[in-house]
Amino acid sequence: MSAIKFTVDHEWLLIEGSSATVGISDYAQEQLGDVVYVELPEIGQRFSRGDNVGVVESVKAVGEIYMPISGAIEVINDRLVDEPELVNSEPTTGGWLFKITLDDQSDVSGLMDEPAYLEFIATL
Amino acid sequence: MTHDLDGSHSKNLFRTPLHALHETLGAKFAPFAGFSMPIEYGNGLKREHLHVRAAAGLFDVSHMGQLIIRGPNVVEEIERLVPSDITALKPFRQRYSVLTNEHGGIIDDVMITCLPEQIFIVVNAANVAQDLMHITERLPPNNSIELLEDRALLAIQGPSASTCLAKWEPDIAKLEFMQAGYFQIGGIECLVHRCGYTGCDGFELSLKDDEAPSLASMLLEDDAVEPIGLGARDTLRLEAGLCLAGVDFDADTTPVEAALEWVIARKYRVQPQTTPGFLGAARILEQLNNGAKRRRIGLISAGRAPVRAGTVLLHNGREVGQVTSGSFGPSFGGPIAMGYGESDLASIGIPMTVEIRGRTHELQIAKLPFVPTTYYRP
Questions:
Q1: DSSP structure string for B284-341
Q2: Quick check: B45 contacting A, CB < 8 Å?
Q3: What is the pLDDT of residues B211-238, one digit of tens each?
Q4: Could you tell me if the ipTM is greater than 0.90?
Q5: Domains of chain B, earliest start first
Q6: Domain range A2-122, CATH architecture
Q7: In the predicted model, what is the mean pLDDT of chain B?
């Protein structure tokens, strides 16, 4: 079973069992503009929900990446080092940021499903 | 210029005469110096930046202040307010200079043109009120100063700018860098300057505000010309090593510290017998002869992380300065920054380090501009 969820910080999570792939939403990349630099956490680091784990920088702005759910960093998307623009061109596929191992699979409270997220961004 | 209050985007912001056109063109707006200004137009800042360097871009810079000063000896009067040679400026020639205070600090950077019986000055939007007061207080009563509130200012910048304007008026292409003239473009009277703030060849067009939307639309019909927002204007000027007022200098910074010695008139540099009469001359000339402690520098990085304004510069672990402007240079192809460092450490190639979010990044001092300028100097 997999499910895509969103946070109020405009991150998406593709949850597959006890792990989740994380990226920023199409809305977020659009707001940020041309991404020129992505700073990611190190593999194995553990973070709690809401911790600042990295940045996505455009020419004009610095977008903080927050841990969407408590867990440990399992893999990072190395391609973003040389191709940060993937965050713009493929925000929900090739522009993923990192994969995490969830501390607690039931800890998905407060995350939005896609229709709820689209409704949320329509209010912004 | 009509200062309509902008209710739709933010409170109490002025709009330029091109606001409706920007909306039609899909601009994203942001407040800048009290104006609601187009930041980019939907294809992205990087693409806009590269388009200017490759073809031509049209910028609305109507937020900037356009001043006319008239009266007896107006040239000499203005020359007392800047370190530059204004009396040597020929008619229809323009000069970049700085308005200084009594302590030699830069209160604004300006473009000054000698027109028949008047001086035309373009000042930064955020400094209009301050500059008006500064100049007015120092002019004799028989001189007059006027802020042209019914004029728009457009900039067309890039290698295709000249060909684009020449289609309307071939003689415009004969202007040289920092030269001005009055021309009709499609029946619209413009004061045209061959200048800009992008490092490219280009022009600035001053015209009646109610004619600005027609002129802008006409120029945008050219396939080479795209509308460009303030976002790309900022990365273009940074690549060209040009200062942003209030950011890369302030009223405590002298032209020597800002590495703008070249604006200081030659006649002041050759050991004058008496201290010249321009504002702040004593301190500026003292620094010119003996050096200043700090100096504006350019910085590049081997990595990809942009180094933003406010980042502290370290040399061998010691704090030696600070970044004032930092971004990613789309034509340069990497992070670029300007800042201030100790003059003794201001040579090209000197390494610096910065701490960004707990990580150390290595920079080195680089020459300005970061991208070669392409001004038209036949």
A1: HHHHHHH--SEEEEEEEESSS----TTPEEEETTEEEEEEEEEEEETTTTEEEEEEEE
A2: yes
A3: 999 999 999 999 999 999 999 999 999 9
A4: no
A5: 4-62+150-239 (3.30.1360.120), 293-378 (2.40.30.110)
A6: Beta Barrel (2.40)
A7: 95
